[in-house]
Amino acid sequence: MAATQTPVPLFTVRSSSQVFHCPARTHPLHFASNFSKFAKASLSLRQSRIKNLTTPRATPSSSSPPTTFHGQCYVLGDNIDTDQIIPAEHLTLVPSNPNEYRKLGSFSFSGLPTSLYPIPFIQPGTDSTQYPIIIAGANFGCGSSREHAPVALGAAGVRAVVAESYARIFFRNSVATGEVYPIELEQEGVNKQCTTGDIVTVDLERNVFINHTKGKEFVLKPIGDAGPVIDAGGIFAYARKTGMISSVV
Amino acid sequence: MAATIVPAHAAFFGAKKEIGARASFSPSISAHRCRKHALNKVLAVMSPPQPSRAPSTTGSVKHGMTMTEKILAKSSDRSKLEPGENIWVNIDVLMTHDVCGPGTIGIFKKEFGKNAKVWDREKIVIIPDHYIFTSDERANRNVDIIRDFALEQNIKYFYDIKDLSNFKVNPDYKGVCHVALAQEGHCRPGEVLLGTDSHTCNAGAFGQFATGIGNTDAGFVMGTGKLLLKVPPTMRFVLDGEMPHYLLAKDLILQIIGEITVAGATYKSMEFVGSTVESLNMEERMTLCNMVVEAGGKNGVVPPDETTFKYLEGKTSLNYEPVYSDESAKFISEYRFDVSKLEPVVAKPHSPDNLALARECKDVKIDRVYIGSCTGGKTEDFMAAAKVFLASGKKVKVPTFLVPATQKVWMDLYSLPVPGSGGKTCSQIFEEAGCDTPASPSCGACLGGPRDTYARMNEPMVCVSTTNRNFPGRMGHKEGQIYLASPYTAAASALTGYVTDPREFL
Fold it and tell me: Does residue B370 surpass a pLDDT of 50?
């Protein structure tokens, strides 16, 4: 090594302790516990998205933040970059356009090398995924700042990503868009103990991640600084609440 | 229209200038220490007053701020702040392009109303550059969307292109956003620049806080001119020693990323100092800061100096105020490099931190070479490549694609003489070496793009590239193999048909 390093650790900077700018909507973010997703929506894009999705929607209460996610998981390694999440050729699709939003979802994870990930994330001939929860290693979402990445995942039906750590722009965009809930694990190597298809539960009240298929439970890190912004309902709502921008739009 | 420095700090700046002048004659480490000491004397004027009691009796140790902390403090009207704090920052410039512009505009209109006006029509720079020279209808439509918005909002800086068949007949068109921002004088010391592109950190070369954000954040900035940001701690990279003639800034940053990994600087600021950094020109400093994001970094900074101020002369009429890290600033870590001992390197597939010596990859047969992008498609990058072709005098053995970043770069290739060539231009040297004709300026195949993008990798092949990422599928095909390299190494590899250390020719 040509460099000599003298670490002077003064701050423990947790990769999760970053502020996120939140959903581009004026209403609080809702993650229903079971089959529905973002069911509370008003004049937003969400409503048109929900109408288009084929699974039945339940309408959760309008004020409770998300508590659990449940379903099959798709397992990934370290350093999954945004080009693998949504290859650049699909970036001509504009995420704020409802028709193109759906199409974006159909291309999620189409950049994964099939030699490493033989199980397709989205079954050929369909445009949404059967895996609402992603389990990943370190530095998930590294690379480009494209907001299309968390948007594509959300559009495909992903509700939560449970990773060892995140790259900062992807994390910020996830919270800003509200498309996927970015959750961090306390310990390393959890993804190595999971297999794509395992049935899992993410419990945000108890801060645990349960792999029912493998019979294992893991601790999650609390959300950190993002909390107040998420609770307010996103960066726009947070800004209005704290008086940074006026309430009337 | 020369740039002027804010009068209140004129005395400070005057002293700094003098230091800068001395520095250029003595790049050794001891001189650097003298400069630091001298800087310390001057900076004492700027630092907050120290308490007269010993720190231990007050229960707290007062310390200075790093450059990044200072810029953020200034831009959030705070006299002091610490890493970890969340602050509302006033944004000086917001940049967006054709890929993220439409989404950003969509969010802006949704949240602020379809008749809302942007916070400042002079502080938004809209630069189409990603998917331009393509017949992809949606890509073309996206340029129309940003044009409509620019017209509606009377955006002062919109670098439009309408005639895709000939970039030269579009007088406003620039090309790659990060290079255009620099060339058009939008990067200024001490300011905060945000862009809907991860390589916005490129502008840190000017001693400003510059970072990439997503559409939603950008939509928010568009309406308010502010963003909630968390102050990052700073990692310091001290690069000293005379730069060997076969190394470029690209080798330095690849070395750094290789050593700290792609997550080594996550959420942190990377500050580049030292005699080597001071000897770099602005384009080389940009290459250094450009790839900060590849280490996970939030932003990169280089202290502004004479080189910076000279570059900015005639490019901007706005006042700017450089800031510098205090002598007593706290850094989360420090790495020191003796640059004279480094060798040309590459990042092997499929990660920017997959570091290897170029000479140890000499058996890797390649199929093509790509010289372009914000990272490696600037005038200096092409000059460097030309130098290698000139030294060899031979022809390339593989297709060699040249994509100038901007119109200005393209013009430089056809007009500037290459030193030591007897008056030849880069374009002449490239032609004699059998390279492809320099293409229309844009981001090109750096990120693949629509299928008909020039030089896109549509089959699995091995490419040596001066670009910034080599994750699977980055330039198009998922099984493509990309070796990231400096322009010297790229040109050398083109000449042999294998990954090649440029010392074979230089």
Answer: yes
* Distant-in-sequence, close-in-space partners of A32: CB < 8 Å, separation ≥ 6: A38, A39, A58, A59, A60, A66
pLDDT score of A84: 96
Residue B44 binned pLDDT confidence (cut-offs 50, 70, 90)? very low
Q: Is the pLDDT of residue A40 over 70?
A: no
Distance CA A27, CA A25 (A): 6
Cα separation of B343 and B348, whole Å?
A: 15
pLDDT at site A199: 98
Chain A 4-63, residues with CB within 8 Å of chain B CB atoms = 4-11, 13, 15, 17-19, 21-26, 44-45
* Cα separation, A109 vs B421, whole angstroms: 49
Which ipTM score applies to this complex?
0.84
Is there a contact between A155 and A37 (Cβ–Cβ < 8 Å)? no
Averaged pLDDT for residues A132-159: 96
Domains of chain A (ranges; CATH) run 64-224 (3.20.19.10)
Q: Which residues of A touch B136 (CB under 8 A)?
A: 92
| Mutant choice from B76, B138, B142, B216 vs A, greatest count of A C-beta within 10 A | B216
Inform me whether the C-beta atom of residue A224 falls under 8 Å from chain B C-beta atoms: no
Instruction: Please enumerate, as own/partner, the contacts of B117-121 that have beta carbons within 8 Å and a separation of 24 or more.
Output: B117/B153, B118/B153, B118/B155, B118/B222, B118/B223, B119/B221, B119/B222, B119/B223, B119/B224, B119/B225, B120/B225, B121/B153, B121/B154, B121/B155, B121/B156
The answer to whether residue A1 neighbours chain B at the CB level (below 8 Å) is yes
- In chain B, residues with a C-beta closer than 8 Å to the C-beta of A26 are 111
Residue A174 forms contact with B (CB below 8 Å):
no
